């Protein structure tokens, strides 16, 4: 269960990190915004009013396109108005939104041409360049406020005085916009991923240790079983050995007692008369008994048997001979 939780946490952390990255790239807001205007019949001159370049900030770029070379002339707004007089021209006054520049058509029915616009002595600066022409907003602002202070300058856009002064104008400003939740996504994702990774490592380590303990316990159990079997076998062998030791003397004692009794009967001259058939059977049994008991008969030595004190010589029975049976008078009377 811990491993599953750890994997889930790692996946959630990775998802948080991916979400943060997407918030910085694919889902990030625009890093700049551009306001544009298309000029259809602007007249022979286009004026950008003072301050319009700074609506979106003091950094950015203004781009002007025209049918030919474009002259960028700076001067005070009053001087430019006086120079144009009654000629038809267009003024860019500001923004209606962050994508659109607003314009004002001035003297729509006025003169269509202006004489030699770049040669007037009213201009503070004149710069002619091929279309499209660009103005660096930061440099323009620096020139107005620091290098040679000329605040609130207007910009006059013209070509040769007969063609439209510009066909389009756009101003682009950089935007310091970003998704506010991106840092939180990074932080949360990293924290959850680290917790999940640590939990996974701990789970794997404990699982490995538990497997080793189970293996050791299984090995001990197997060893104990083997030892128990060995002890049981040893006990069985010991019991069998003791039974064998007990059984052998019993056979020897039985044979010794049998021989002793037979010897006493023989010495006393007492014994039943045995017929031939019975004697043969007994002789066969005796031989079998001789072969079975083996050395047990050696315990009995006929020479070691002393005669009884009656003075009568007892008949000696050699090993293997049948015991002679005597008739019982009472049995005959019956």
Biggest β-sheet description: 6 strands, mixed
Mean pLDDT: 74
Task: Spell out the helices and strands N to C.
Answer: HEEEEHEEEEHEEHHH
Unreliable parts: 250-256, 260-286, 288-314
Question: Number of DSSP strands?
Answer: 10
Number of helices: 6
Overall form? rod-shaped
Helix % is 40-55%
Strand percentage lies at 15-25%
Instruction: From the alpha carbons, calculate the radius of gyration and give it in angstroms.
Output: 67 Å
Structural class determined from secondary elements: alpha+beta
Q: How far apart lie the N and C ends?
A: 100 Å
Largest beta sheet: strand ordering: 6-5-2-9-4-7
List the helices and strands and how they pair.
Blueprint: H1 2-24, E1 32-38, E2 45-48, E3 61-65, E4 70-76, H2 77-84, E5 89-97, E6 100-106, E7 125-129, E8 133-136, H3 137-147, E9 153-158, E10 168-174, H4 182-268, H5 276-293, H6 329-333
Parallel strand pairs: 2-5
Antiparallel strand pairs: 1-10, 2-9, 3-8, 3-10, 4-7, 4-9, 5-6
């Amino acid at each position: 269960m811990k491993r599953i939780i750890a994997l889930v946490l790692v996946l959630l952390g990775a998802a948080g990190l991916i979400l943060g990255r997407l918030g910085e790239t694919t889902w990030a807001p625009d890093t700049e915004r551009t306001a544009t205007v298309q000029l259809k019949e602007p007249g022979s001159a286009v004026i950008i009013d003072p301050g319009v370049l700074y609506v979106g900030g003091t950094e950015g770029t203004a781009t002007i396109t025209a049918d030919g070379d474009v002259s960028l002339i700076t001067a005070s707004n009053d001087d430019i108005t006086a120079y144009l007089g009654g000629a038809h021209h267009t003024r860019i006054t500001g923004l209606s939104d962050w994508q659109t520049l607003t314009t004002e058509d001035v003297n729509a029915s006025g003169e269509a041409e202006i004489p030699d616009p770049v040669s007037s002595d009213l201009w503070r600066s004149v710069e002619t360049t091929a279309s499209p022409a660009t103005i660096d907003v930061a440099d323009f602002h620096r020139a107005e406020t620091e290098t040679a202070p000329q605040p609130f300058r207007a910009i006059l856009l013209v070509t040769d005085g007969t063609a439209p002064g510009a066909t389009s104008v756009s101003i682009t400003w950089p935007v310091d916009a970003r998704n506010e939740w991106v840092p939180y996504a990074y932080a949360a994702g990293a924290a959850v991923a680290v917790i999940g990774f640590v939990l996974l490592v701990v789970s794997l380590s404990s699982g490995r240790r538990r497997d080793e303990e189970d293996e050791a316990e299984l090995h001990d159990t197997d060893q104990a079983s083997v030892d128990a079997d060995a002890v049981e076998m040893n006990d069985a062998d010991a019991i069998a050995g003791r039974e064998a030791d007990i059984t052998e003397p019993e056979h020897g004692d039985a044979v010794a007692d049998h021989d002793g009794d037979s010897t006493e009967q023989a010495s006393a001259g007492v014994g039943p008369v045995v017929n031939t058939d019975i004697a043969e059977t007994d002789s066969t049994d005796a031989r079998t008994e001789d072969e079975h008991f083996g050395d047990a008969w050696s315990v009995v030595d006929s020479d070691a048997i002393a005669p009884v004190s009656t003075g009568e010589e007892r008949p000696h029975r050699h090993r293997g001979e049948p015991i002679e049976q005597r008739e019982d008078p009472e049995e005959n009377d019956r």
